[in-house]
Amino acid sequence: MAYPRVNRLNEEMKKYISHVVRNELKDPRVAMMTTITEVDVTRDLRYATVFVSVLGKQKEKEDTMEALKKSSGFIRREIGKRIKIRYIPEILFKLDESIEKSVDMFALIDKLKVNNSDQEVEKDGGDE
What we know:
Layout: H1 4-24, E1 34-41, E2 47-54, H2 58-70, H3 72-82, E3 90-95, H4 98-127
Parallel strand pairs: 2-3
Antiparallel strand pairs: 1-2
Helix pairs in contact: 1-3
Subunit structure: Monomer. Binds 30S ribosomal subunits, but not 50S ribosomal subunits or 70S ribosomes.
Organism: Serpentinicella alkaliphila
Subcellular location: Cytoplasm
């Protein structure tokens, strides 16, 4: 069963958290290529799981996640200023690697296409 209020809150939180991370968070550990991919607020509106995608090396990902976890109180306060609800959800950050997995999958598909086209050229060239 879908909960329209929770869905609206998910989208609003995603928009505002993205804004705060991009424009107001001054921690140098946060990588430039950080994206908030999804926010999932629980039905009781107490917790919000924020999925973060970071493009870069493993060290950058770890530093960014650590910085975001340390600044979750600041982000929660800023969200409280912008969204008028009784309880501001506690923010939990999780690393989302789905974008990188999809990039890897596309690279594998392209590699297979190149290999298949090379095999077809060899077959066509051998028949003559």
